[in-house]
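Data follows
____________
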Amino acid sequence: MTGSFSLPKPFASSPSESQTPGSLKIVFCDGCGWFARSQWYSYELFQTFHTRRLQKGLEPLISETTIAASENAGDWRMEINNQLVWDRRTDGGFPDLKLVKNRVKEVLDPSVDLGHSEIKCSNSSAETGTETDASSLSSGFETHLFIHGDESDVELDEDEMLQMRRMWGVM
C-alpha cells in the first residue's frame, strides 16, 4: 500500500527568496496496521507546513507526501527530504505530534512559528540564555496527562506516560 500526492506551487517568489518545498515520507509496517496512523501524521504535517502557510500567503514548506508500506516487521519512520525525523524503534514508540512538528520545523525552517505547538523549553537553558533546538529534546518540556475516572483525576509521571505511549501509540 503506497500513496503519494504532490501539489503544484501556487505562486513563485523571486529565486533568492524561494526555498525548495520539502518532501515528507512515512514508512510503516503494513502487518502492524499502522497505515491509518501514518495518514494522520501526514495530514497533520501537511496542514501545518503547507495548507496553513498558503492561507497566510506564505510559501509552503512541504509540497509532497509519500506513505509507503515496509516489509520489515515493526517498522515506522518519518523522513523529511531524506533526513530521518523519527524512527519508532530508536526513538521509543510513536511520537507526540507537538514533538514531530518541532523536529520537522528544525529540518525545514527553524524560524517558522508553530504557535501553540511550539515547544517551550523548561530546563536550565532558559536560565543560562542558551538555546535548545527541538530535535534534541526528548523530555525537556513538562507534559501532564490526566486520566478522567469516576472518583478523581490521576496524574501520570514521565515513565508512566512513556509506557502508555509505547502501549497505545499517540496520545
User: Anything to note?
Assistant: The helical segments are 35-55, 88-91, 97-108, 125-128, 158-168.
